[in-house]
């Protein structure tokens, strides 16, 4: 019993030291820190949108059509006289929601299927990986468009479409990690004492996949944001009067020459948040990869 407690204490110390090294490496990465700060600011902007938006983003005032950026309208107004800055603030709610929720769903599906395929192998592995290969063989945006055209344009259907096209990559990464872990001594020891496969997968294999999953998650979110922007630009994403950034770019593309701010401002918002997540993901990858630390 004492030996078991010593081993558990040693494992906890190793984990604590590992995460301390990760945070120490992240603090030295200025791009990752900058990305993290920008992400936090966008999240706060989405949460506090009703408090910080200077105008009603849905209020139509045709007398204020295409007002240039000014002290009253920081980023000008659109074709309906709506404040572009306020719509970008409210649009962060939809864009971040579409970035985070489908990413969580795809990660969950990919984790479950990847661990099951890697641990049990044989026919289970063959079936899951065959389905994964079929999903990966289609261009993700094209497949998402097919799903959206089939189900109809709505926020819920965007979640479904992005979840269907995004899980396969995560499943393959988790499967590879599971294959490398399931024959390790600590897994063999757990199996030898009669620990159930479900417990082994949850308590011994999954925790060791968390570093890779964190990186995948930070890179999956900007992919979902860009996919939603593409779907909205093509007319099958968020629908009016929603203030999704992709929809704003789509609505403003016809006025690029006489009112460029209508499309450029939300486009810059998409660019900034995607870069921020990519910077943070790159920093996490460098901090979590032992080979890059050498």
Automatic annotation (TrEMBL):
InterPro entries: BP-dependent_transpt_permease, MetI-like, MetI-like_sf, OppC_N. It comes from the Bacteria. Gene3D superfamilies: MetI-like. Signal peptide: none annotated. Residues 92-281 form the ABC transmembrane type-1 domain. Keywords: Cell membrane, Membrane, Transmembrane, Transmembrane helix, Transport. It is found in: Cell membrane. The chain crosses the membrane at residues 32-53, 94-119, 126-149, 155-174, 255-280. Belongs to the binding-protein-dependent transport system permease family. PANTHER family: D,D-DIPEPTIDE TRANSPORT SYSTEM PERMEASE PROTEIN DDPC-RELATED, OLIGOPEPTIDE TRANSPORT SYSTEM PERMEASE PROTEIN APPC. This is Peptide ABC transporter permease. The lineage of its organism: Bacteria, Bacillati, Bacillota, Bacilli, Bacillales.
